[in-house]
Amino acid sequence: GNGDVFEVEDAINMLNKTYRIYSRRIALELRRKGFKIVGTDINENFPQYDVYLFEDTELFREELSKLSNKK
């Protein structure tokens, strides 16, 4: 691309500050903890899978790091 093509979706993501979760298991864990999945997207690397979009907040990041450390 020539660099100044701007996807509408990018604009939306920037406004809403979303965080992309590639793991369905983690996404469902987070949802169980009360975080809302604000959207889904196609996983560029594995088009058969979805990416889960969450609102990116400090609280979200905290929970995510707890989950990520928990194997």
Could you characterize the architecture of this molecule?
A 3-stranded antiparallel sheet has the order 1-3-2. It is about 40% helix and about 25% strand. The longest helix has 12 residues, at about 60-70. The radius of gyration is 13 Å and the shape is globular. The model has no long low-confidence stretch (mean pLDDT about 85). It has about 70 residues and is of the alpha+beta class.
Helical amount: 40-55%
End-to-end distance: 39 Å
Number of strands: 3
Widest sheet, order of strands: 1-3-2
Bin the strand percentage. Answer: 15-25%
Short descriptors:
71 residues, alpha+beta, 3-stranded antiparallel sheet, 3 strands, 42% helix, 23% strand, globular
Helix/strand layout:
Blueprint lengths: L7 H9 L1 E4 L2 H9 L4 E6 L7 E6 L2 H12 L2
Antiparallel strand pairs: 1-3, 2-3
Q: Quick gist of this model?
A:
The protein has 71 residues and is of the alpha+beta class. The protein has helices spanning 8-16, 24-32, 58-69, and strands at 18-21, 37-42, 50-55.
